[in-house]
């Protein structure tokens, strides 16, 4: 009997080892470009163009000084943060309300409407650039924060609806019914009960939407010229007729990572916490 138990434990340890090896390989695959970008941002110019990979060198802040001295890059960075944050908040507010409605209320052809909302993101972005450009031009919105915020928010609302709809569906209805019996209004149930229980999904969705907004390129390229350009456009501008400025490009990319890293640091607990587990008890 003991030999059988030992064999089972050995198989479990072996399978667990392969699982961890798979995790490590996936982690290396996704982290390598980020680590290489950060390393390149600290490399002197003569090492950046070396044909051999160099991992150990004396760090230099030349690339960061050059980026910071170019005030337009910092301006574009500021534009990216403001536009992405406001667009994310708008998408979260309206998308969350819509998601809760789809998950709780009896709406005629609810599934068809939900699928239609998601299908709006199936259209390639480039196909709608010209109509949106003409509309923005007629309303005087070209090269403004407003047009990018409205576009990013409207394009991301379908994602919020579908992601948060799943989280709301996992919350037992009995909790909401008990709150209503105690005299809580419908909006009070949503605000005081549902949202706190779905905070993990809400934060995860916000991160996803923020990353999509801050990385968007095509609409920022077409609809802005000087005042409202975003950092991805500034990074693309480092590809010049004299060559690609790899050091400055990697430094700008690393600067773009800073708000994301700070954001993740503050919300890490919410991302990994299952607040709905055992809620019915």
From TrEMBL:
The chain crosses the membrane at residues 20-39, 76-101, 113-135, 147-168, 189-211, 217-239, 246-267. GO terms for biological process: transmembrane transport. It is a multi-pass membrane protein. SUPFAM superfamilies: MetI-like. It holds the Pfam family BPD_transp_1. Residues 77-267 form the ABC transmembrane type-1 domain. One of its GO terms (cellular component) is plasma membrane. InterPro entries: BP-dep_ABC_trans_perm (IPR050901), MetI-like (IPR000515), MetI-like_sf (IPR035906). Its main location: membrane. The keyword Membrane applies. The keyword Chaperone does not apply. It is found in: Cell membrane. Keywords: Cell membrane, Membrane, Sugar transport, Transmembrane, Transmembrane helix, Transport. Part of the ABC transporter complex MalEFGK involved in maltose/maltodextrin import. Probably responsible for the translocation of the substrate across the membrane. Belongs to the binding-protein-dependent transport system permease family. MalFG subfamily. PANTHER family: MALTOSE TRANSPORT SYSTEM PERMEASE-RELATED (PTHR32243), MALTOSE_MALTODEXTRIN TRANSPORT SYSTEM PERMEASE PROTEIN MALG (PTHR32243:SF50). This is Maltose/maltodextrin transport system permease protein MalG. The lineage of its organism: Bacteria, Pseudomonadati, Atribacterota, Atribacteria, Atribacterales.
């Amino acid at each position: 009997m003991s030999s059988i138990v030992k064999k089972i434990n050995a198989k479990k340890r072996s399978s667990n080892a392969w699982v961890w090896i798979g995790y490590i390989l996936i982690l290396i695959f996704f982290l390598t470009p980020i680590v290489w970008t950060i390393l390149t941002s600290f490399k002197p110019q003569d090492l950046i163009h070396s044909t051999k990979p160099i991992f150990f060198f004396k760090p230099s802040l030349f690339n960061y000084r050059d980026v910071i001295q170019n005030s337009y890059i910092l301006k574009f960075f500021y534009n990216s943060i403001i536009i992405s944050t406001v667009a994310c908040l708008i998408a979260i507010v309206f998308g969350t309300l819509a998601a809760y409605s789809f998950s709780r209320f009896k709406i005629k052809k609810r599934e068809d409407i939900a699928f239609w909302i998601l299908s709006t993101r199936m259209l390639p972005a480039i196909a709608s650039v010209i109509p949106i450009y003409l509309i923005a031009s007629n309303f005087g919105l070209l090269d403004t924060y407003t047009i990018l915020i409205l576009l990013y928010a409207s394009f991301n609302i379908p994602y919020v609806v579908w992601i948060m709809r799943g989280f709301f569906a996992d919350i037992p209805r009995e909790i909401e019914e008990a709150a209503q019996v105690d005299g809580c209004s419908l909006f009070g149930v949503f605000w005081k009960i549902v949202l706190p229980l779905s905070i993990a999904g809400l934060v995860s969705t916000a991160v996803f939407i923020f990353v999509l907004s801050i990385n968007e390129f095509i609409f920022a390229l077409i609809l802005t010229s000087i005042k409202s350009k975003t950092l991805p456009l500034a990074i693309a501008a480092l590809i010049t007729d004299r060559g690609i400025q790899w050091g400055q490009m990697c430094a700008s990319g690393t600067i773009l990572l800073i708000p994301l890293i700070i954001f993740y640091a503050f919300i890490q607990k919410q991302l990994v916490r299952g607040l709905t587990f055992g809620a019915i008890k």
